[in-house]
Specification:
Helix content is 5%, strand content 27%. It is mainly beta. The strands form 4 sheets. The protein has a 17-stranded mixed β-sheet. A 3-stranded parallel β-sheet has the order 5-7-9.
Length: 366
């Protein structure tokens, strides 16, 4: 049965004449330039209904695809004029082939059974998102996408990653491999290779150890997110001159020595909350632009304020929920631009707060 309406949203329903009838739903909303296809089995129902797609369609969303293979024919027949292709809630889908003829800029796979994605050389695709997929390896053919700028892999089964694999992707700006099964990060650490990556996010994984040398080629990296792992040790030297933010919160670090790190003059914030640190990491004073330090929920009992005092731009430091019992009485021992000092949850009494300190620095103890 076919049903067409003259409304902006056109619905086509196909009921196959067999015992286990399936229903194909095709809806296009012209004001949004968006078409949604539900319960589609390309091998049985074909592509004929796509002839009714409005010319101005820019987005195609496929829901509950009833086929193991999403073949190149989709791109060669219709997606060639669409900007975004999304496949969602399709557990039967296992293999995706994206041909060179596709001119889509954005590909999204969400809650699928995809294990294999093959890209032919394509200069149009700039963003690939794979979420909630049993895929175990980063698709090797991503290297055939010279224009790619953003890669997001979330809730996958990827256990290892080689950072050197991304060197050829000169236009890649963000790499996010999060909430997956990542346990090992490899990297050559050669500074003879440079890339344009701005953000690397490897949070919510199972990393226990990491060699920071592997990030050296990413000289333009501004954000490195390693939060919510199981990190117990960091080796190597951090050598990323453009880095402005380093997130290491929610790990298992007992100590951190920044003395071997290269001077990262642009580093503005470092987050080490929810670790097992017993002291403020050594040599933080080497980072002259450091403005915000978060060390809440650690085991710090003593702070070398004379070291922090050397940070000319430090505006806030969070030391809440540690084991600090007292702070300096001399205001001159604090960093010159410090405005916020959080000491909540420490065994420190209001009586130990130096007189007049709150006039220039907001100190929170309760």
């Amino acid at each position: 049965m076919l049903f067409f309406t003259n409304r902006l949203c056109t619905v086509v329903t196909v009921m196959l004449l067999r015992a286990s009838a399936q229903g194909l739903k095709f809806c296009c909303n012209e004001p949004d330039s968006r078409c949604t296809i539900e319960e589609w089995n390309p091998s049985e129902e074909g592509y004929f209904f796509l002839n009714h797609m409005p010319n101005g369609t820019h987005v195609i969303k496929i829901v509950n695809l009833q086929n193991v293979l999403l073949e190149a024919k989709l791109c060669s027949t219709v997606v060639q004029f669409v900007n975004s292709l999304s496949v969602e809630n399709s557990p039967k889908l296992g293999i995706v082939i994206i041909p060179a003829t596709c001119t889509i800029e954005t590909l999204i796979m969400f809650k699928t059974g995809v294990r294999i994605i093959h890209f032919e050389k394509n200069s149009a695709i700039i963003s690939v998102t794979i979420r909630n997929s049993p895929i175990t390896n980063i698709p090797a053919t991503l290297l055939t996408l010279p224009a790619i700028q953003h890669i997001l892999l979330e809730y996958t089964k990827i256990a290892s990653i080689d950072l050197s694999w991304f060197y050829p992707l000169k236009g890649l700006a963000t790499l996010k491999l999060v909430k997956s099964n990542l346990q090992v990060v490899h990297g050559e650490g050669s500074t003879n290779v440079t890339t344009g990556l701005n953000v690397i996010n490897l949070s919510y994984n199972s990393l226990r150890a990491l060699n920071l040398n592997g990030f050296a080629p990413f000289a333009e990296l501004t954000q490195l997110v390693l939060a919510h792992n199981k990190l117990e040790s960091l080796t190597g030297a951090l050598n990323i001159p453009a880095l402005t933010g380093l997130m290491l919160n929610h790990n298992r670090l007992k100590q951190l020595d920044a003395c071997q790190w290269n001077d990262t003059q642009r580093l503005q914030g470092i987050t080490l909350a929810h670790n097992y640190l017993r002291q403020v990491p050594a040599c933080l004073e080497r980072f002259a632009s450091l403005a915000h330090v978060d060390l809440n929920h650690n085991r710090i009992g003593y702070v070398r304020w004379e070291d922090l005092q050397q940070l000319p731009k430090l505006a806030s430091i969070d030391l809440s929920f540690n084991r600090i019992t007292a702070i300096p009485a001399d205001q001159a021992q604090y960093p010159p631009l410090l405005k916020q000092l959080d000491l909540c949850g420490n065994p420190i009494g209001v009586v130990t707060i130096p007189d007049g300190l709150n006039d220039s620095i907001h100190v929170t103890v309760v």
